[in-house]
Amino acid sequence: MTPDSSSSPAGDPSPSAGDRRIPVAVLGATGTVGARLVQRLERHPWFRLAEVAASERSEGARLRDRVSPDIELSAVDAERTLVSLDGPFRSHLVLSALPASAAREIEPELAARGHLVVSNASAFRADPGVPLIVPEVNPDHLDMVDHQAGRWTPTGGPARDGGGIVTNPNCAVAGLAPVLAPLDAAFGLRRVVVTTFQAISGAGRPGPSAIDLVDNVVPWIGGEEEKIEAEPRKILGRLVDGAIEGASLTVSATATRVPVLHGHLEAVSVELDRTATVDEATAVWRAFRAPEVARGLPSGPEQPIVVLEQDDRPQPRLDRDRAEGMAISVGRVRPCPVHTLRFLVLSHNLERGAAGAAMLNAELAQASGRVRPALG
Amino acid sequence: MTPDSSSSPAGDPSPSAGDRRIPVAVLGATGTVGARLVQRLERHPWFRLAEVAASERSEGARLRDRVSPDIELSAVDAERTLVSLDGPFRSHLVLSALPASAAREIEPELAARGHLVVSNASAFRADPGVPLIVPEVNPDHLDMVDHQAGRWTPTGGPARDGGGIVTNPNCAVAGLAPVLAPLDAAFGLRRVVVTTFQAISGAGRPGPSAIDLVDNVVPWIGGEEEKIEAEPRKILGRLVDGAIEGASLTVSATATRVPVLHGHLEAVSVELDRTATVDEATAVWRAFRAPEVARGLPSGPEQPIVVLEQDDRPQPRLDRDRAEGMAISVGRVRPCPVHTLRFLVLSHNLERGAAGAAMLNAELAQASGRVRPALG
Amino acid sequence: MTPDSSSSPAGDPSPSAGDRRIPVAVLGATGTVGARLVQRLERHPWFRLAEVAASERSEGARLRDRVSPDIELSAVDAERTLVSLDGPFRSHLVLSALPASAAREIEPELAARGHLVVSNASAFRADPGVPLIVPEVNPDHLDMVDHQAGRWTPTGGPARDGGGIVTNPNCAVAGLAPVLAPLDAAFGLRRVVVTTFQAISGAGRPGPSAIDLVDNVVPWIGGEEEKIEAEPRKILGRLVDGAIEGASLTVSATATRVPVLHGHLEAVSVELDRTATVDEATAVWRAFRAPEVARGLPSGPEQPIVVLEQDDRPQPRLDRDRAEGMAISVGRVRPCPVHTLRFLVLSHNLERGAAGAAMLNAELAQASGRVRPALG
Amino acid sequence: MTPDSSSSPAGDPSPSAGDRRIPVAVLGATGTVGARLVQRLERHPWFRLAEVAASERSEGARLRDRVSPDIELSAVDAERTLVSLDGPFRSHLVLSALPASAAREIEPELAARGHLVVSNASAFRADPGVPLIVPEVNPDHLDMVDHQAGRWTPTGGPARDGGGIVTNPNCAVAGLAPVLAPLDAAFGLRRVVVTTFQAISGAGRPGPSAIDLVDNVVPWIGGEEEKIEAEPRKILGRLVDGAIEGASLTVSATATRVPVLHGHLEAVSVELDRTATVDEATAVWRAFRAPEVARGLPSGPEQPIVVLEQDDRPQPRLDRDRAEGMAISVGRVRPCPVHTLRFLVLSHNLERGAAGAAMLNAELAQASGRVRPALG
């Protein structure tokens, strides 16, 4: 038995002898996003799941007895015992799938203890001291986390050395921002009008009632439009002296909920500084690759944007699973009589928009040397 | 037996003695829109159903054996015998719910014989000699039909005196144009970006396959966007010397099909000539009434546009049936960061968008003295 | 102003002068069933809505601010003020749409005060002292309520004179029992195997999550199968010396939830004492009428059971609204290779299965002289 | 270039040098089942796709231009050229996903030429000379195919040596029969009452209209109940002197279509010769394994039947994909008050019920030495 495994909490699996992958803690492991993080770690080449935590009422329970029925865990993971969100955690790297309210309390506290918290929560996305990252778009913003140590103190005290918080975008922005970024780089992006068709799983469990989504569309998602309008400016912004100078872009969003399980579809019209033809935009999207530092991350598809040519695509059910939900589909690219171009974007809200996004950020943190084998 | 009833085709009901309502023929009576026209005539104060026609393969059959299962007809109507689309028809007024291809052949022929054809088909909507009418918006365009006699000849020869073709808009435009018209009148309308969420029944039967609309949205409806971009310009245009001078408006449309039975929802952003606040626009919509000539028509709601104030409305299932599907719901009116205002529009595609629209046009024709008790 | 109206709670409508209809209180008016009771009272010939009550957290609020969005109330009803479930109520007749837990506490208390409580709740359906009634089937069981006064005391003390509790069946049984009753009378009913396809609205709000009913069926409804197996025995039983002798019938039920808004469909196989052909059973169902005492009730269709002959009917969406949801559709009647006959039953769970069922019981109580103009 | 590949039709991929897998032809490759067969062959350990055929109107086209959008083929398969259903085919083994009408004509003709046709079509399932096989249940029935040579001649002449037709069951029976078989073996099976909830994909494309399956269930599938009642008797029957002696079982089936994409759910009540407890039945199902000859086939799960213990399972969306759709889920096993036991069964209609079923039969044919490397 290795020293490491001997200190496992009772009932939890020990890593195989010789498993040299970096231990990771997952917070909020019972929800769909948290469970998907657990599942993504099952065969991860760099990381291994070491600790799973959930809210007080699940503490001490087996994961299998509390986990979302939508995710089929491995037998080993199903048997894990849930620990308190307060920890203590031995893993330096903490993946958080907490709801915003819990994240707001717990994440700064963990950063103060020196954990690197890679969070899917919305709590700190708009915080000027916290990076909001899509590795293919703005991996350089990750430098912001280095400035959190000793300085950033929303509630938990300043982050300890090596500690900090990194966030990924809202699930609708996660598909949109990588599509806007290369347009902005190539043609200059001024204005965006977007209407979303968002999937039910984006609301978590219990989420919307069935009575509201049979033979119906609900044209409102509380707080969503504000995020879609604000987050792209931060993601496409420039890091200047450790702070983000937001992009000058204006976004108008209308967010709706449709009877679709997974996959956010978005109808987008963009006004560009320079004229761009359908072929030019298509070429730019197809050529788009992550910057060097973020290239080859295990969860990142080599080609992040797939442009479809059929008239009636992308469709949520047919296109959401491309590259395990990490590739973004663009289709129906055509000139816009009001602006410059219009098109549809589809991305998997649980993968590219949540669990995959957080995992990709964790991989970026590791690739850039910021993850430690254990809390120091 | 009255003289009138003695000339009824075998098997068809005679009008009650003393029923002085104007006889009407319905073409394409077996489809959902045609059957809804039949149903709307059951208790119509001005018109009575005299003749029902359908395509060759239904000729001679009882209506009940061929009609869409979605419409529950009265026992009397269910027993009617379907006659040929070629007629001859005794009614001067003909309501057409034919598909575009059949309409293109038959409607001009009927106009040439002197029938006033009030059509829901798309075949002649864009024809410069044919009026495209929403009674609350452009009832004056009906004058165009008076110029068809002796002149308009797409295929059937010139219309005979009293004959002609009148059309109503595409089902997505039928809800949109009346909402745009008062904005244009009050503030000047420049540009519109609209994304539609269209109901299944808009496609007729068999329509889309279930396999494509469970857990899915199809972001394309062939030919629809072109209509949504063109028709508002004609409807909001001015009649000058018998021809339409289109409005200068530019529309960009993205049309999608969602798993909803009835009710087209549309997310709209408008750029106006003059600034308008949410309250000003709301007041303009609430004050909107049909012009004098079109006021008080039996199928027209007194208040054509209802502005909802709840955050999450309009919703197709909850709002489509307002005023028997003839009132249009507007909701979520708010400033648009890219244009001037944005809002959602909902209207019942089979009522305001098809059967009710054609009926309202027939009523306008009657109110303006253009309908005759029988073909001369 | 009449003396009656002068004592109305502030903000509540007074009955029109000369409105001689019997006042009624509705408990649980904010839920879908309660709101539907309110709506059914808008034009009721015998009863008028006098009082609306809801749970503590809605007390004092306007009905419109708490009511289920699925029901569109009249302007007058929307403005009513909700009072406490504890009353006091002036109406003798109380219609209860409470959840079982609240019903269990409040209904006996009201009976003890002398109110006749006509309840849709499951709380006392199985109570040997409480009648479980479908007016077309067992109106004579209503005599049981006369024995409650002074005797029946589950928790609230004995019912006061004129007070008591009357219940209607579970929403799946409400459609099934009236179909079984005439078979039993004509041929003797031994065994029933039934599989239900139950609509979402049967679960109230919030009800099942959309994530569980898109692209899915949930083959379990907690507690439902037990009710479907037990209640028909009581309804089809005989009243002997004031107590029910249950029918000897055996029922095996499997209850499932399907993505349908309203309308419970049931696939039924029955074993009869005597052989019955499809034609014989059809004739028996078509001839079925309510017993004299329950005939002509305002909410009862003249013909309670409609037998459909098309291959593919009944279907929830097409057949649930027959006779305002009070007629039960039977279809696909055919011999059963295992038992005697098999067929499908459809009934509207909110009407025949809940609000309409309670209203019909209230009407039966009035027709049999048990309702008083006010609490004595 | 190998001799084999040099004779490939233009445009079709050559097998990799050294690919010693047995060549297979797929008929009806453009439909969902056919395309799924193509997909299953991509990584098959024993077989390789050599020829793809479709109806006349697709002949000469690329597979990618005609294939069902529901199946994502590999780039290599997408480029294959469709040949005529008449062949000639070089593969001895032919997998047929043809509709019944085409199968009726073509399959006997291919058998007469010496092909072993493993068919998913219903055309010959009931033919007394054709085996109807589920490898885990009745692999011995495959012997029947040996008697087809020189004798069996429905239309195509007698099968040539090595030629013949083998079928798999209807998609609803494919899940049911393996669940009934071990009950029959252990306890004796007398009577079965089954109600199905069948998925949309079972109807192929275009299949049911969306307008019929939003907010609805269609309680009828033409011809389905007859198959569900007849096929289990043949599958559970005994092969005596080259002919099937049907099991004495009686089945009563009601078949419905529900708004589910994939996965047929069935509510089953069984009457057994001997009493069986829930635990006994569960043990029998869990112990059930394929007979020796059919054990370890590449597409067969080691444990064909999974018994679930949660109250609300199996559910189509959550359980259909178990073992790539080849494991059958049983749940809610409980005593039946009318018969002996009742339970729910779920199986994937496209895998266990169609493409996987045919593939498993092909594997059984190979394992039993009946497949040749090429048409002799």
TrEMBL record, chains A, B, C, D:
Keywords: NADP, Oxidoreductase
Enzyme superclass (EC): oxidoreductase
EC number per UniProt: 1.2.1.11
Region (Disordered): 1-22
CDD domains registered for this protein in UniProt: ASADH_C_arch_fung_like (cd18130), ScASADH_like_N (cd02315)
Stored InterPro entries: ASADH-related, Asp_semi-ald_DH_pep-lack, NAD(P)-bd_dom_sf, Semialdehyde_DH_NAD-bd, Semialdhyde_DH_dimer_dom
Biased composition (Low complexity): 1-17
Keyword Oxidoreductase: yes
Gene3D superfamilies, alphabetized: Dihydrodipicolinate Reductase, domain 2, NAD(P)-binding Rossmann-like Domain
Start and end residues of each Semialdehyde dehydrogenase NAD-binding domain: 23-145
Pfam family, one: Semialdhyde_dh
Any one GO molecular-function label of the UniProt entry: aspartate-semialdehyde dehydrogenase activity
Family, similarity comment: Belongs to the aspartate-semialdehyde dehydrogenase family.
PANTHER family: ASPARTATE-SEMIALDEHYDE DEHYDROGENASE
Protein name: Aspartate-semialdehyde dehydrogenase
Taxonomic source organism: Gaopeijia maritima
Upper classification of the organism: Bacteria, Pseudomonadati, Gemmatimonadota, Longimicrobiia, Gaopeijiales
Gene assigned in the entry: asd
